[in-house]
Design a protein that fits this description.
The protein has helices spanning 28-31, 34-43, 76-90, 96-101, 106-114, 124-130, 166-197; strands at residues 5-13, 46-55, 62-74, 116-120, 137-143. Strand 2 and strand 3 form a beta hairpin. The protein has one domain (5-197): Replication Protein E1, Chain: A (3-Layer(aba) Sandwich), CATH 3.40.1310.20. It is built from seven helices and five strands. The protein is globular, with a radius of gyration of 18 Å. The protein has a five-stranded antiparallel β-sheet with strand order 4-1-3-2-5, with helices on both faces. With 200 residues, the chain is of the alpha+beta class.
């Protein structure tokens, strides 16, 4: 029987997805922006999490190194299923991604999932420290508690848009705009309900 655990270590490697019209692959933090990964962990009903963007010492490949603590125990297979479901929700078919890529968003979610590894966390303190180490850090870390280090002392301090197509810079901007619009709609709905319950 698969072991059910609260705490997991997650590595998401750059799938190096090349879109039509682009000569280089889409950088990982544009394909899956940090704000979207934060949302992923919140949708998984997390207790705590921390992650950062790193570059492999030997391969030079970008990846997210993540430590995740959940409110409820899950098996490895269930956690992977939850990640797959969450990413499909975050990359809906009507998303601007489909327009920009010309290939639909299912390929984006699938490419991320295929590059994701999940392992049981052995020691919470050590794992959370490992997900914030400085020697391979490119950007981050981000955490549930709100701590954010901007990497200003690193060789590549602000590489968020480095060497990638403008379409994916636009995507990141539009994704944030979409979240703001949803928040505004929810605020308007709540105000309406309050006024209905308490007429002036």
């Amino acid at each position: 029987m698969s072991q059910q655990l609260y705490r997991w270590v997650i590595t998401i490697n750059d799938p190096q997805l090349i879109l039509p019209g682009e000569s280089e692959s889409v950088r990982l933090d544009l394909l899956l922006p940090p704000c979207m990964l934060e949302e992923t962990f919140e949708l998984l009903e997390s207790k705590n999490w921390v992650f950062q963007l790193e570059r492999g010492e030997e391969t030079g490949r970008l990846h997210y190194q993540c430590s995740l603590s959940l409110k409820n125990k899950v098996t490895k297979s269930k956690l992977l299923r939850l990640l797959a479901i969450t990413w499909k929700q975050q990359f809906p078919d009507h998303s601007v991604l489909e327009t920009l890529s010309g290939e639909g968003v299912s390929k984006t979610a699938e490419s991320l999932f295929n590059q994701t590894t999940v392992l049981p966390m052995q020691d919470e303190a050590s794992s959370f420290d490992y997900s914030q180490k400085t020697d391979t850090r490119v950007k981050g870390p981000w955490s549930k508690t709100g701590f954010y280090y901007d990497g200003s002392d690193l060789p590549e301090p602000d590489a968020f848009f480095y060497g990638r197509g403008m379409s994916w810079i636009l995507l990141n901007h539009l994704y944030l705009e979409e979240q703001v619009q949803k928040l505004e709609e929810l605020t308007g709905y709540l105000i309406t309900k309050v006024l209905e319950a308490n007429p002036l």
